[in-house]
Amino acid sequence: MQNILDSVDPFIGTMATDLPPAQGLAATWWWPKAQVGNTHPGASYPLGMVSACAYSGAYPTGYGVYRISTEGQPTQLYERNQASGFTHFQQSGTGAIRKYYNYFRVTPMIEPLDALGTLWQLHDEVAEPGYYAATLDTGVRCEVTVGAKTAVHRYTFPESRSARVVVDFSYGGLAIEHGRTVPLRAHMQSLGRGQAEGTLVMEGVPLSVFIEADTPDWRQLLWYDRRLVDGGTRLDFDYIRRTTLRPFGLILMGPAVAGQTVELKMGFSLRGTEQARANLAEELGLGRTRFDKCRSRTRKKWSSSFDQVKVDGGTPARRTVFATSLYHSLIKPCFADDESPFWPTSGPFVFDICTMWDIYKTQIPLITALEPRKGSALLESLIRVCEEEGNFPIGYRMAKGADRFFRQGSALAHTALADGYLLGLDGIDWDWALVHMQDDLRRVYGEDFLEKDIAHPITHTLDLAYGYHCTAVIARGLGDRRLGDELEQRARYWVNAFDRETGLLKKSTYYEGGRWNYSFRLLHDMAARIALAGGDDRFVHMLDGFFGYGQPPVRQLGTPPFADEYSAGAALHRFEGLNNEPDMEAPWAYHYAGRPDRTAEIVHAALTYQFAPTPGGLPGNDDSGALSSWYVWASLGLFPVAGQNLFLVNTPAFATASLEIGGNEFLIETIGHRETPISSETGTPSAPQFVQSATFNGKPLDGGFITGNELHGGGRLQIELGPEPSAWATKVRPPSVSDRTDG
């Protein structure tokens, strides 16, 4: 099996969804959300603090051509890809989360400073993990690469009497309505000899930079309001408002011969300029040009990450989509050890856990599997955030405030903590974690749940009941049986969320979905959930209707504004495919009803028709890697049930695959595997394959699941495939709480 790093295409997902027409089951799914991946092709470091990319101001990463889009096909802000410079700290695949970073814009110019902000067309774009390049209309070739806490820019100029590199310290956010981020305070200093430093306070967070430029014969000046500050070496702004903000920054300028290159190194920190300088010195050293060294080191880091996931077989298109999905899964969250601006001690600090309500299902289990130490650091950071701010975050950005996304979900960190505890992750004080988990269950919607045994929006009832279950797991594991039983008793109140007449969730308000989309979540007691719906047959019948079996193709949304298209689509109560994440685990609900063949059909349809190796090859927002990590797990024939230390087994998309987990190899082998193209390669639909039998480490695997400990411990999962459904995993079901004799 070979490393698939060279198959990565960072441009996948950067443009509006443009997939071949779906056929069969996939054609019956309805997409309510924005049909665009919202990814960017910029240079990124695996789970690093920094990214760097061409900046146009478009939604939502700063790269590209689109306006704000939340439903349907996005509308364009620009007609072509262009940039006014290159920025850092881009989001990856997110949708509407209010504010965006794009700080410290760097612009190579051969025009006067007054031209700063001009959008130049991008030509000859190139991107690979850790590297991005493009040529501007002006003829300047621009290249950027990054380290964990650093960025390096290299600009190759045409002949010019006055070439310049401008760093705009004042600019942040997006060029859309309400998209701009204004610094509250700032200071910067020119240190001479190509060096400068500064700190901005953005959204309550101090972000510092140390700059070193390879421009020995060029002038180095500060500028304010597009005018040079001759002789000035420091600018201080103690109180900035939107009405008083004028642009300011650093300029390096001088003559350039054709082909002359200039390098600019930048070290970043959330703890001041001294630490920013130290980060730059530690990663790249000071005093010499370092672009190629940084690019090479980051490439090796990406290669090391990709060495942990290998596959054999697969068509070229399938391998490209799989490799890029793995790449997108490892861009966020941002791990910045010893960088917390909110507490002074050393240790892990993690931000850009932007869409916790999506990534807790698939991406966090993937990160924890590939890098258990990172998984442990993430949990420790979440605990520390809770300790400092009073609650576990539902989403956590490089911005002050851990309660920003509380409406989206409740108690989601509890799932990752329960998995971490059961996996035995090191470095966590579990007694202290349990204290915070209990306290967090009482906040916001948790008060209603405590008083009334139900909370609205109704999905929070499911969240909180699940959070109680996850907390009970840790309490019992730590020996507090009484507390564990009390918590588990409250975890049973998930039933209060359901209407027993319909077998669906009760009428309520829903975040990005409806009650059908949330009714098939994988709960901690799926046996009781299926019984509530009327048993296996009725539950499967409900699922079949949800997934569109026997239904005609649907019409997808076009561009806004919509007439009756949206209400007609919503009235279908249909699976949203991978366009939206609330029901992303629903295909695996069939496992609990003894129909893994249905899971195989749905996952095969999604992998075949909803992804392609093209810029428009994603069906919806990648949401920080949630969608991409779903694709990785589904292609491996696995699905993590977050919070339950459980992985469901399904038909793999590759003949052979392996995962390296903490030094242990988990090998997935198939017998009878048939290569199937994806829709972008052929118009002929391919039939799914079904598991006939399976063994784990040579012993029969009669149920369609393994534990997280078995996955992390390594071993050999061998799966025999065939063209027709079999009796495999129809009798032995994945575990449920009510299966336990101890209650």
From TrEMBL:
<dbReference type="GO" id="GO:0000224">
    <property type="term" value="F:peptide-N4-(N-acetyl-beta-glucosaminyl)asparagine amidase activity"/>
</dbReference>
<dbReference type="GO" id="GO:0006516">
    <property type="term" value="P:glycoprotein catabolic process"/>
</dbReference>
<keyword id="KW-0378">Hydrolase</keyword>
<dbReference type="InterPro" id="IPR041371">
    <property type="entry name" value="GH92_N"/>
</dbReference>
<dbReference type="InterPro" id="IPR050883">
    <property type="entry name" value="PNGase"/>
</dbReference>
<feature type="domain" description="Glycosyl hydrolase family 92 N-terminal">
    <location>
        <begin position="8"/>
        <end position="172"/>
    </location>
</feature>
<dbReference type="GO" id="GO:0005829">
    <property type="term" value="C:cytosol"/>
</dbReference>
<protein>
    <submittedName>
        <fullName>Glycoside hydrolase</fullName>
    </submittedName>
</protein>
<dbReference type="InterPro" id="IPR014718">
    <property type="entry name" value="GH-type_carb-bd"/>
</dbReference>
<feature type="domain" description="Glycosyl hydrolase family 92">
    <location>
        <begin position="275"/>
        <end position="723"/>
    </location>
</feature>
<dbReference type="InterPro" id="IPR012939">
    <property type="entry name" value="Glyco_hydro_92"/>
</dbReference>
<dbReference type="GO" id="GO:0005975">
    <property type="term" value="P:carbohydrate metabolic process"/>
</dbReference>
<dbReference type="GO" id="GO:0030246">
    <property type="term" value="F:carbohydrate binding"/>
</dbReference>
<dbReference type="Pfam" id="PF07971">
    <property type="entry name" value="Glyco_hydro_92"/>
</dbReference>
<dbReference type="InterPro" id="IPR008928">
    <property type="entry name" value="6-hairpin_glycosidase_sf"/>
</dbReference>
<dbReference type="Pfam" id="PF17678">
    <property type="entry name" value="Glyco_hydro_92N"/>
</dbReference>
<feature type="region of interest" description="Disordered">
    <location>
        <begin position="722"/>
        <end position="743"/>
    </location>
</feature>
